[in-house]
Amino acid sequence: MSISNEILTCIRERRSTRRFTEEQISPAQLDALLDAAIWAPSGGNNQSWLFTAVQNKDKLLRLNGIVIKAFQAWTPDDGYPGKLGIKENSQKEGYNFYFGAPTLIIASNKPRYQNAMADCALAMQNIFLAAQSLGLGSCYINQLFWLRDEPAVRDYLQELGIPKERVICSAAAIGFKGAESPAPARKEGTIQIVR
Ligand SMILES: Cc1cc2nc3c(=O)[nH]c(=O)nc-3n(C[C@H](O)[C@H](O)[C@H](O)COP(=O)(O)O)c2cc1C
């Protein structure tokens, strides 16, 4: 790779952080992340996403407890192997689906909207890159998407301000890095150029 600049370096150096310190990010940092999110592209310029940032430790722990219980009764709706592993892990002592991060940003979108996931995923990557640029760690969190139709999860998300009709798309765990993650090697054969 011969061309390099700040953004390209940020893209290359961003990793999923799975260990965070207890320290909360500043209000200015949170503002910057949420601003990055809402400047993502969206299909037909819908901007129909909702980003709910939860920074209250007790509320996050309560959500974690509800997620653990919901996993007990949950059966994956497809053959994705990671899901069964995570269901199993969720029943182990000390499980925390957002890795104990001090901030969790939950992305939801309007129902029956074809680009709901795509729009939120682009916003998530904006959040991750903005976090990296500010020296913060971040990780994509899928559990709330998987459990999006579990009544107890939806009841509590509603208490946190996410209306039940909205589709839960994804979440971002955010905080100061407690450990660096190694960069996974890139797979071969994933690029082709036709000139
Ligand atoms: C759609 C999607 C879902 C993911 N879900 C999770 C998750 O629930 N928990 C987690 O720890 N990482 C999750 N990840 C992060 C990936 O595991 C990670 O991006 C991948 O291992 C590559 O590592 P890197 O992000 O450090 O480059 C998810 C990533 C994507 C794109």
Explain what this protein looks like in three dimensions.
The protein is an alpha+beta fold. The protein has a single domain (19-175), classed as NADH Oxidase (3-Layer(aba) Sandwich). The chain contains seven helices and four strands. The chain has helices at residues 6-13, 27-38, 57-73, 81-89, 116-133, 143-146, 151-159; strands spanning 50-54, 103-109, 137-141, 167-175. It has a four-stranded antiparallel sheet. α3 runs antiparallel to α7. The protein is globular, with a radius of gyration of 17 Å. Bound molecules: flavin mononucleotide. Flavin mononucleotide binds next to β3.
Search tags:
195 residues, alpha+beta, 7 helices, 4 strands, 39% helix, 13% strand, globular
A few lines on this structure:
The protein is of the alpha+beta class.
**CATH homologous superfamily label:** NADH Oxidase
Order of helices and strands: HHEHHEHEHHE
Number of helix segments? 7
Mean pLDDT: 97
Bound chemical compounds: flavin mononucleotide
Strand order of the largest sheet: 1-2-4-3
Question: How is this fold's topology laid out?
Answer:
Blueprint: H1 6-13, H2 27-38, E1 50-54, H3 57-73, H4 81-89, E2 103-109, H5 116-133, E3 137-141, H6 143-146, H7 151-159, E4 167-175
Antiparallel strand pairs: 1-2, 2-4, 3-4
Helix pairs in contact: 2-5, 3-7
